[in-house]
Amino acid sequence: MESIDKERSSTRSFQLFGWAAFAASAPFSLRLAYEQTLLTWNDGPQLVGFAMAHLFPLLLLLGMAGFLGGSVWLLVFGVKALRKWLKNQPQLPRRVWMQGLAIGTALVLQMIPYSAWITATIMIAGPGQHGPALLSYAAADGDTLLVNLLLNRGVPVNATDDGRATALNGACVTHRTEVARTLIARGADANMAKDCWEIPEFRAKMKPIVPGADPFATFPRVPDTTIYVNGNGSSVSEAPPLPSAK
Questions:
Q1: How does pLDDT run across 143-160, given as a tens digit for each residue?
Q2: CB neighbours of 77 closer than 8 A, spacing ≥ 6?
Q3: Going by C-beta distance under 8 Å and a sequence separation of 6 or more, which residues neighbour residue 19?
Q4: Which of 92, 148, 184, 190 sits between 20 and 30 A of 68, alpha carbons compared?
C-alpha cells in the first residue's frame, strides 16, 4: 500500500512538472508560429524571434525554459513507458499519455523550419502583397522548392523586393547557384541582378559593361568626398580654410 502511494505521489509530481513546462513553452510556440505565418504574410520576411526578444523578453525566457523542461519531461516519460513495457507492467495512465502529446506538440512547433511555415502559408493563402520579398528570401536561402512555389503562384520572376533587388540578385549574393539557374531558366533577367557579374557562369549571360562604367551605378552611393556649402549657396568639395588664430 505504501509503495502504491509513493508511486501515485511520484506520478502527480511528474505531471505537475510537465504541465509547468507546457505552460511555459506553449505561448512561446504560438508566438513563433504567428511570426512565421500571419506576420510574415502581412509584413514580409521576419527576423524570427527578434521582435519577441524586444517586446516580450519574459515570454522568450519562459519559452526557452519550457523547451528545456519539456525535453527533460519527454525523456523521463519515454524511459518510464519503456521500462513498464519491458517488465510487462501496467502502462502509464491515459492522461499522462495525453499530456505527453500536448508537450511534444508544443516542442515540435518550435522546431519546424521557417521555410516550411512560409510554404504552408502560401499554399493556403497565396503569396500576398509581399510575394516578391518572399521570393528574394527564398532565393537567398537556397530554397528551390519555395522559389518554384512562389513562381507557380504568380509572383513575377523579375519582381523586386523592398530594396529594389530581384530574387536572382539575392541568389547570386549568397552564391546559391542552383537557385540562380532555376530562376534564369524561368525567365529571370541577369542584367537586373548586378551581383551576378561576380560569378563567371552568369556573367556570360549579362550584357557587356561599358569600359569605365560602374556595374553598380543603379544603386545609391555615398559621395567619396564631403560637400561643403558656402554662404552664397555654392558648393565646394573641400572644406574652406579655418581662420588663423591671432
A1: 999 999 999 999 999 999
A2: 14, 18, 92, 96, 100
A3: 99
A4: 92
